[in-house]
């Protein structure tokens, strides 16, 4: 009888070769999911398909192989899952003797004698489709330096090609922040470029315009398109002036920010390198309008316009950016966004229609392509303020009986509160963890910077800096240093609006919210600042002082979320969303010019304290759960491993079965390091993992290490069987090591180390003599001790 590997080598591979499936049309061990990131630089189980069948650079089908003794349909559900994930219509399951083919569209399958040939399978799936889709899909992806596309990126590219071949003029892709939208855009552009696809159907290279709303985004895209370096131009005022007022037209790839090419009002200076003007507002009347540079091009000049972050105002028919799209209406418009449909970006979906493909932040986290997060939510006893006459009014005037959280830093500031929050922030982060603090406005960002620097331990002058649109070239230089993962300083950056998008800092470990967030779109983008993968970064922490993370409970996040069970006993204040209209249309608030003087209060005798403190974790469905609820949910997936508490303890009693069980926990997304953290949150640091699991699953009492060791030492029957006192002493020593250092001391591979540390001082022969001179007896005693310890 052959195992699976032998079955593949001796039975399945010859059948595939006989039908003509060889490299590059046959790919073994095709990676689908990288495995969710776990604490301790580990990952949950990866997902790979045994075989991927391709032809003309087009994915056709998956094959799941099982060893010859199993049913040929044993892997059917697996391979159906793979096919469903990659939107493929055919799947195969085989044991090498029989082949079962499943049609995902018809929803049924049948046994077949042989695998179809590549040509036959391709003809079956694509023979009735138009020649354009075949041509577009046949163009290979460009993956320089051996980079491999991820499965969802391949789907996004394929679905876009299908939409174009079907004649769609507006195409939308919704891909979470950090999942490679620019890479996808590059591959789409390359296929259209190589295919000589044009809006008018003429056989020449298409003119492609990539539109962004910030220079940093446009420049990042130019870098991603560097394969076409000599065929690229960025449309700027400087470039046009260099050409004597004429627009560049000789290249095939064009990049621009909306502000640089859109209509401008009289007197509006176009610096063309300034990202302050994020949203172009419509002029009061047409007489105030100066034509934008886009009108230097014929309206049919561009064949394709790719709109990055298209949810930010592009589809709004009242914005001047929309005029650019309307002017080039004959072009294919491809929108890229990270935000699913909801009220604050509905106009985007009205303009583009439903996305041809969606890949959410939770998908990315579960698949292992984005970094997971945990939430630390804190409230203070001064999140509302009632003037009582005891405090000093430093400036401004009191005009309310009560000020709520939404008033802070807009209508009211209390420097002592800002100071306190800065201290709490520093207390809850590691000194050199890169951190972004999102503040209410620019003055608030400056105040937070000053408060953090006041209480920091680090002496570097740039440990904490403010980076906002008002900080000019100095801010730009600091931002570049912050983005450089090899540089430690600056470590903490305070900002308000500028860093919500367009800033890739792979090693961000903390996102701190000291302002409320009313927009789901903005909330998703802020969270996205922390999701980038980085070596050694297992998770990032969202530290929330304003209740903004209540948005995780909104059905518009990534699905309906279950109610949370807080650890803290203190009741938390109700979440108060920021009133509509407080958020600026775009850019960053400077917080003062033209506004009434903000009320500044100096406290006289009031002590600021943390009112509640809660940790939350995200599960596979995107739900935020407290530590106990999160652990209970994971335990809910484990009964298949053991049927009751007795069996759970039996699993834990043996070093090998315990090791296997811990691996299964990791596959479910629960690493050993994470278990240690949960023990701390459950105030069970002095308890073994087995007791925490039994408590969660069976509501048993928590037993401490010390209590467990005392019970074991009290088992006279067990110890009396060892006549040599040295043997008894060694077993007592093992228990004491367990009490001090935990269950890792009981691992099978640690026995030699225990002998070294004990009275035997590493003399293995003396240790064996104490147990009758037999290795087996020593090992049996080691395991039997664990049986009474975990009985």
Automatic annotation (TrEMBL):
UniProt feature, compositional bias: Basic and acidic residues: 579-596
Signal peptide: none
Domain Helicase ATP-binding stretches: 162-358
Protein name: Type I restriction enzyme R subunit
Biological source species: Arcicella aurantiaca
A GO term from the CC aspect: cytosol
GO biological process: DNA modification
Domain of life: Bacteria
A GO MF term: ATP binding
Pfam families: EcoEI_R_C, Helicase_C, ResIII
Region (Disordered): 556-596
């Amino acid at each position: 009888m052959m195992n699976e590997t032998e079955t593949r080598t001796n039975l399945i591979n010859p059948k595939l070769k006989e039908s003509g499936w060889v490299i590059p049309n046959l790919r073994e061990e095709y990676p689908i999911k990288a495995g969710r990131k776990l604490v301790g630089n580990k990952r949950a189980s990866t997902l790979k398909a045994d075989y991927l069948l391709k032809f003309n650079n087009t994915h056709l089908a998956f094959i799941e192989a099982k060893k010859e003794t199993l049913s040929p349909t044993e892997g059917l559900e697996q391979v159906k899952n793979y096919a469903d994930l990659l939107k493929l219509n055919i799947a195969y399951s085989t044991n090498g003797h029989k082949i079962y083919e499943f049609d995902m569209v018809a929803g049924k399958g049948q046994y077949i004698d042989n695998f179809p040939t590549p040509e036959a399978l391709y003809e079956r799936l694509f023979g009735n489709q138009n020649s354009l889709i075949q041509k577009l899909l046949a163009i290979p992806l460009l993956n320089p330096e051996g980079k491999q596309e991820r499965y969802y990126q391949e789907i996004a590219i394929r679905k876009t090609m299908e939409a174009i071949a079907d004649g769609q003029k507006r195409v939308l892709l919704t891909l979470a922040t950090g999942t490679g939208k620019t890479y996808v855009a590059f591959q789409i552009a390359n296929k259209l470029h190589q295919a000589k696809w044009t809006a008018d159907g003429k056989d020449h290279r298409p003119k492609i315009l990539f539109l962004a709303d910030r220079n940093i985004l446009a420049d990042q895209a130019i870098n991603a398109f560097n394969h076409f370096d000599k065929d690229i131009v960025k449309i700027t005022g400087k470039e046009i002036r260099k050409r004597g007022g004429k627009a560049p037209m000789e290249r095939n790839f064009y990049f621009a920010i909306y502000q640089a090419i859109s209509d401008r009002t009289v007197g509006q200076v176009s610096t063309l390198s300034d990202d302050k003007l994020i949203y172009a507002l419509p002029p009061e009347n047409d007489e105030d309008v100066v034509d934008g540079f886009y009108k230097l091009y014929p309206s049919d000049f561009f064949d394709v316009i790719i709109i990055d972050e298209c949810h930010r105002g592009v589809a709004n028919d009242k914005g001047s950016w929309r005029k650019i799209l309307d002017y080039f209406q004959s072009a294919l418009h491809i929108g890229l966004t990270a935000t699913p449909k909801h009220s604050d970006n509905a106009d985007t979906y009205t303009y583009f229609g439903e996305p041809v493909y969606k890949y959410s932040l939770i998908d990315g986290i579960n698949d292992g392509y984005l970094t997971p997060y945990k939430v630390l939510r804190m409230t203070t006893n001064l999140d509302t303020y009632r003037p009582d006459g005891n405090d000093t009014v430093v400036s401004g005037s009191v005009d309310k009986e009560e000020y709520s959280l939404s008033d802070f830093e807009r209508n009211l500031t209390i420097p002592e509160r800002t100071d306190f929050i800065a201290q709490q922030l520093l207390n809850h982060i590691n000194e050199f963890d890169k951190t972004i603090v999102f503040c209410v406005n620019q003055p608030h960002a400056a105040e937070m910077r000053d408060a953090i620097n006041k209480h920091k331990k680090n002496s570097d002058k740039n440990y904490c800096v403010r980076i906002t649109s008002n900080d000019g070239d100095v801010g730009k230089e600091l931002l570049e240093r912050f983005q450089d993962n090899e540089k430690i300083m600056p470590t903490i950056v305070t900002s308000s609006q500028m860093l919500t998008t367009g800033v890739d800092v792979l090693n961000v470990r903390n996102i701190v919210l000291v302002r409320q967030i009313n927009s789901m779109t903005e909330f998703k983008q802020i969270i996205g600042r922390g999701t980038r993968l980085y070596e050694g970064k297992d998770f990032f922490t969202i530290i929330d002082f304003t209740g903004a993370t209540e948005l995780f409970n909104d059905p518009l996040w990534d699905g309906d979320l279950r109610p949370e069970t807080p650890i803290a006993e203190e009741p938390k204040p109700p979440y108060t969303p920021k009133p509509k209209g407080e958020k600026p249309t775009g850019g960053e608030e400077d917080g003062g010019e033209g506004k009434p003087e903000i009320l500044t209060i100096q406290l006289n005798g009031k002590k600021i304290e943390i009112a509640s403190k809660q940790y939350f974790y995200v599960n596979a469905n995107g739900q935020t759960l407290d530590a106990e609820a999160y652990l209970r949910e994971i335990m809910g997936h484990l009964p298949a491993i053991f049927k009751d508490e007795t069996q759970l303890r039996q699993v834990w009693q043996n070093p090998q079965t315990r090791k296997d069980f811990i691996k299964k926990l990791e596959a479910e997304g629960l690493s050993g390091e994470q278990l240690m953290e949960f023990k701390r949150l459950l105030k069970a640091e002095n308890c073994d993992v087995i007791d925490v699991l039994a408590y969660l699953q069976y509501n048993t009492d928590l037993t401490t290490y010390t209590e467990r060791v005392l019970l074991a030492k009290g088992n006279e029957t067990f110890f009396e069987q060892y006549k040599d006192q040295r043997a008894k002493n060694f077993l007592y020593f093992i228990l004491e090591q367990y009490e001090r250092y935990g269950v890792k001391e009981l691992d099978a591979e640690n026995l030699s180390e225990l002998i070294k540390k004990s009275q035997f001082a590493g003399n293995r022969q003396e240790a064996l003599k104490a147990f009758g001179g037999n290795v087996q007896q020593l090992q049996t005693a080691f395991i039997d001790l664990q049986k009474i310890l975990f009985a």
